[in-house]
Each structure stands twice: as structure tokens, then as C-alpha cells.
Amino acid sequence: MTLATGTSKAAEPAELRWDPDSLPPFPAVALKALNLMSGADTSLIELCNLIRSDPAFSAAVLRIANSPLVAFSKNVTSVLQASMLLGFRRLKSVVITVGLKAYLKDSFTPLMQLCWRHSVACAIIAERAAKWSSLDKDLAYTAGILHDIGRVALATTMPQSYARVIKRGADGSQELLQSERELCGIDHCQAGRSLVTAWGLPEGFLEITACHHDPEKRVRGAASLIPPSCALTDALGLTVVRYRSPRSYAEVLAEFPEPARNLFPADAKMLASEIANEITIIETV
User: Fold this and answer.
1) What is the C-alpha separation between 193 and 188, in angstroms, rounded?
2) Which one, of 215, 254, 220, 218, lies nearest residue 235 by Cα?
3) Average pLDDT of 120-128?
4) Is 16 helix (H, G, I), strand (E, B) or coil?
5) How many helices (H) and strands (E) does the chain have?
6) What distances in angstroms separate CA 70 from CA 61, 63, 65, 281, one per listed residue?
7) Which residues make beta-bridge pairs with 243?
8) Does residue 43 carry a pLDDT above 80?
9) Domains, the chain, ranges and CATH?
10) What are the beta bridge partners of residue 170?
11) Is the peptide bond before 259 cis (omega within 30 degrees of 0)?
């Protein structure tokens, strides 16, 4: 691992350059959940057993299963019961959410809180759009949660450098990526791709993490909803780096497939309020 040069002021300690092997590992339960792609009953049981092997994950899954976010009609008292009621795909989404929250727990600075809320909001928007577009809503949610994992890692590895990225701002996503490369030596899409490889995540997450700001990349299926969902999250004000020329809510909505674009609230404040309420529930369970 090498030291950063040329970007830090003399009064500031030098920061370590990008090295995915130096980062704390993503929670093992969440990584294994991502790699259990089959929807068979055996996979559900295997995932259930994984959760039960980790007391912290067990408690967090039970809290979410009993929260207004899920709204079951009866009290859920065991991970097995939660697994059967949620089903494999929804349970996997819950585990990934809990995993990201656990990953950020020891460094939940204001910057990390911005990253967390942007990721969760993107996941919520992508899930809704997928449901309305007859696409895999659980994959869309998981993709939304993880699309910016590269930015989370950059902010963890180089908090001072990334603070300068935020202070500089940008006119758009391409300028933001360029700023990250100048100040951090790598942009968050490249960092995301590096992490997907280092952590052995399913190959589909390479496009999700690496290409969500690439206007030339044409991704299909639920993953195609991540670029507009990310942009809509920014348009709602849940952005990490402020754009000097932000795109409008209506402009970004037009990028979603029909009928999703017509089913989102016409009022941006209404959608922002709905998402804020869901994030609050997730943060407090």
C-alpha cells in the first residue's frame, strides 16, 4: 500500500492510497447471502441458518420483521419464522441492508450517514420502479443498496481526500468521477468494481457498481433502474456530493420506463417524505 502524495496539505497527515485488501471485510453473513442466488427452499434454509449463526444479525432481522416496514399481522419471534414469512429474496434484501448498516457502524460519521441514506433511498426508489415495471424488485433493492459501495470504501480509506471531493462539488457525475480520480487516485465506480472482485460478489454487481454513471452503458433488467434511481435520489436532495447544476425531479423521472415514471408522486416533496420515513424506520430498528 502506498502513501498519497500531492493532494494533502503539509499540516495534514498523509493518507493511504486505495487498497481493497486494507478495508474491513463486509459482514460474512451478508456476503454469503449475496452468493446464495438460487431461490430454492434449501437456499432459504441455508440463509436462515447463516443468520441464526450470528446473534447481531439475528436480532436485527427480527427487529425489521416486527417493524412497520414489513407490517406482518402477527409478532415474529424467531429467525426461522421471519425467513418463512419474508421469503428468500426479501430476506436476502433485509440481510444486505443490515450488512451495510453493520459495515458503517464503527465509522458512522456525517459523511458516512450521507452515503448510507443515499444508498437506502436509491434502493427504495429502485424497488418501487422494478415492482411497477414487472422486474425483479428484490434484486433492484439489493443493487440500490450496493451501487455506491465504492464511495463508502473511498470515504473510509481516505476521509480527508474525500472531504475535499465534497468541498469541491461538481457540475455533474462525470466531473465528480474526475474529481475523485484527481484527489483519491480512483473514482467510486472503479473502487466499487474493485471491491466486487475482491469480495467475490456475483458478477452482475460489476456492472451495477462500475457503470451506474456511464451514459453509454446499456444494462438490462432490474439493474437498468439503478442509474435513474441514483439520479432521482440526488434530485430529492439525498446526495453525497452537491451538484452545482442539479437535474430536476421531472427531468429524471422521464428516464424511468413506463408505467413507473407515471406512478411516482408528481410532487418531489411527497416522495422525499415517504423515503425519509422508511429510512428512519431502518435506522431505528
Assistant:
1) 9
2) 254
3) 96
4) strand
5) 16, 0
6) 11, 10, 6, 10
7) 170
8) no
9) 25-107 (no CATH), 108-285 (1.10.3210.10)
10) 243
11) yes
